[in-house]
Design brief:
The complex is a heterodimer. Chain A is of the alpha/beta class. Chain A is built from 14 helices and 16 strands. The longest helix of chain A has 20 residues. The N and C termini of chain B lie far apart (43 Å). The chains are: A alpha/beta, B mainly alpha.
């Protein structure tokens, strides 16, 4: 027992010496190491997963492979959608492997846990995968950046367009964890503010394979719109089964609040046609997005999802910030990221004190099989951009937010 | 709650369909465990394999053999895919499992778990993890029918009926025919049965093949309802194991009835308290095991 206590104390002492601030200038440990923490095999793996690792490696390659004369290394791991697994990986990465920045971190439960842990250890996180607004509000941290989208920005485009188009009463099928609740609340706020009505909601566990029961409940509510506050395989199954039960044909409309292009591909245009949603990236939007999309396709055989594109952009901008700051010291890099213009495939964003990257979002609509052009984009000619939502309209203002780091 | 009767009936109906899948899958497990004493962890992966064979036959096989218009339609797949899965199972049994009978249960479990991981990894490498839709639902089974209390997809009704028929035939063959009697005797006292001139090892091989063919059949039936994805087996197998445990390891009738009943319990839970829908079966399992450690229909050893 005595021995154990001693070794625990020793380990704690060692831990302290490792996390003590290193020299402020230059690259620590002879390299810049970036960790891609994602869902590699579960419900969200088609959104991020191995594609995110490929995107990060492409960013390193496009940056030139080295920064300030030192090599850049990408490591990756599977968090299995479990906050404890994700935290354990992040702890090992930071303490033992000296990882300088962690990105992707799909899944809000994991994202919040890892962001908190990494910030305590003075490590930057650039979250592209998780959606919960808690990341930059209640749980905001000094080194945590929420890069790509959040559950406030998603419904701004989608719900507004649908309510204005006559979809005035809503029923929600919600993924039963932080992300789903947050998305449902924010969507409700927008629907109500436009004079719409909420008929009810049902919480479905993450990874449900059969949504028919929830869909029948939604059908029974008589709402005009069934809002899907979920993502990935959950959204796909819900839309597919709604089609099977003839829910859309009987006059109710589906609204996917978070849809990725991989979901549309998986559903097929026959089932998904006409679906509107909000995204941060679509490969066929402008020259910059096309260039990355095609390069990614050549490497991975699929067009990138907005998460994978987000990882690419986050890694690239992080490396630019390291270069500009002349060091990988987290305080200096975070300050630089706050100052610089964040280039996101031709549009420009900026990172606020609460960690939110404010940039334009896009309202898109799934093409019908008739509009689909098989000769464009290797079979990925799936969406059309209907509107651009300017960053300051899409995201919550600092004044509305509740981050304690923001002085009001 | 004040739920209208129609809503409860509708949910029970949906639960029953889910239960029918549980029943066919747990039936295969129960046959294999009851007659071979193997805990077949590869069952979920073989269910997935059945679904993938149907999908590949419809979408890709034609291209591979140089005749793009050639397709294996749903009805053909319903026969062919379980046969192929069964053959694959026989291959596993002959080359690997048969070497493990003299050891502890645990070795068979580990081997089949490994087979499951290999299959899952293989399909994850080549197919969309989120699943690919199976577009081959026959025209005669598309659309919805009015059951009076709800509109129900024709295809699900068919899947429910087909599952029930398969369950009944399996139960009848094993519990009520001479062939079934040989099977049961062969596992109880193999030496004695062999002395009567019956080839016991062959019988065991065919039983394993039949058990996994049931998984393949469930896979084909599930393909048009759920997306065909590498993880579809892993998602369902834990629940199915719980069904087998609740029904009583190795009990044929037990696994069928428990599968159907638990599907309905899950369906009702989805209305009464949705967040518990994925866990309610395990609560039931804990309670049943406390009261009846051998399961509802199991024999005390």
């Amino acid at each position: 027992m005595k021995k154990l206590a001693c070794s625990l104390a020793c380990a704690a002492a060692l831990g302290l010496s490792v996390t003590a601030p290193v020299n402020a200038a230059g690259i620590s440990n002879g390299e810049v190491k970036i960790g891609v923490l994602s869902d590699m095999s579960g419900v969200y793996s088609a959104i991020g997963g191995k594609g995110s690792v490929v995107a990060a490696e492409m960013a390193v390659h496009d940056f030139g492979g080295t920064v300030l004369g030192k090599p850049i290394k990408i490591v990756s791991a599977d968090h299995q959608n479990k906050a404890d697994v994700g935290s354990a990986v992040a702890r090992e990465w930071i303490d033992k492997d000296h990882v300088d920045m962690i990105t992707d971190i799909l899944n809000s439960a994991v994202g919040i846990a890892v962001q908190k842990l990494a910030s305590e250890k003075h490590t930057i996180t650039m979250n592209t995968g998780a959606g919960s607004t808690a990341l930059t509000n209640k749980d905001c941290t000094k080194y945590g950046i929420h890069y790509l989208y959040d559950t406030y920005a998603l419904p701004v485009g989608t719900a507004t367009a649908i309510v204005k188009g006559g979809g005035t009463s809503w029923y929600f099928i919600t993924a039963d964890y932080a992300f789903g609740h947050s998305l449902q609340n924010n969507t409700e706020t927008i629907v109500k503010s436009l004079g719409g009505e909420i008929k009810g909601a049902v919480q479905a566990p993450l990874g449900t394979s059969d949504f028919s029961s929830y869909l029948i409940q939604a059908q029974g509510s008589g709402a005009k719109v069934i809002g899907l506050a979920n993502a990935g395989a959950d959204t796909i199954n819900a839309i597919k089964q709604a089609n099977e039960f003839g829910i859309v044909q009987k006059g109710q409309q589906l609204a996917g609040m978070l849809v990725f292009i991989s979901d549309v591909k998986s559903l097929g245009l026959d089932t998904a046609k006409g679906l509107q949603f909000t995204t941060g990236y679509y490969w066929d939007r402008n020259d910059a997005s096309r260039k990355f999309g095609n390069a990614f396709y050549a490497k991975f055989g699929k067009m990138p999802t907005m998460d994978q594109a987000g990882v690419y952009s986050a890694v690239l901008n992080y490396l630019k910030a390291v270069k500009a700051a002349g060091t990988d010291n987290a305080d200096a890099v975070r300050a630089e990221l706050g100052k610089m213009k964040i280039d996101f495939f031709g549009s420009v964003g900026h990172i606020r004190a609460d960690g939110l990257n404010v940039h334009d979002m896009y309202l898109v609509k799934v093409k019908s099989p008739k509009e689909f052009n098989p000769n464009v984009g290797h079979g990925w000619d799936l969406l059309k951009v209907e509107a651009t939502i300017p960053g300051d309209k899409a995201y919550m203002s600092l004044a509305q937010g509740s981050c304690k780091l923001v002085k009001k | 709650m004040g739920l209208p009767l129609d809503a409860v009936l509708a949910q029970a109906m949906l639960g029953l369909t889910q239960g029918a899948f549980y029943a066919v899958l747990s039936l295969g497990l129960a046959v294999i465990f009851g007659l071979l004493n193997i805990i077949n962890f590869a069952h979920g992966a073989l269910y997935m394999l059945g679904a993938f064979l149907a999908l590949i036959g419809l979408n890709q096989l034609g291209g591979w053999i140089g005749a793009p218009d050639f397709q294996i339609n749903f009805w053909a797949a319903l026969v062919l895919a379980p046969l192929l899965v069964g053959l694959f199972g026989i291959l596993i049994e002959r080359t690997m499992l048969s070497r493990l009978y003299k050891f502890d249960h645990l070795y068979g479990l580990l081997l089949t778990f490994g087979v499951a991981l290999v299959l899952q990894g293989f399909f994850t490498n080549y197919y969309n993890v989120n699943g690919t839709p199976y577009p081959g639902t026959p025209a005669s089974l598309r659309g919805i029918v009015n059951l009076g209390f709800m509109y129900f997809p024709k295809y699900r009704l068919f899947a429910l009926a087909a599952s029930l028929v398969v369950c009944f035939i399996t139960w009848y063959v094993i519990e009520r025919t001479k062939l079934g009697a040989y099977l049961r005797a062969g596992t109880e006292k193999p030496e004695l049965v062999q002395a009567f001139g019956i080839n016991v090892p062959l019988m065991i091989t065919l039983t394993y093949g039949f058990g996994v063919a049931l998984a393949g059949l469930a896979g084909v039936l599930a393909a048009p309802i759920y997306s065909v994805g590498p993880l579809m087996g892993a998602n369902v197998i834990i629940t199915v194991f719980a069904v087998v445990v609740i029904g009583g390891m190795g009990s044929i009738l037990g696994s069928i009835l428990t599968g159907l009943a638990l599907g309905m319990v899950e369906g009702i839970t989805k209305v009464v308290y949705p967040p518990a829908a994925n866990t309610v079966i395990f609560f039931v399992m804990v309670i049943i095991l406390l009261v009846r450690p051998a399961g509802l229909f199991g024999r005390e050893v």
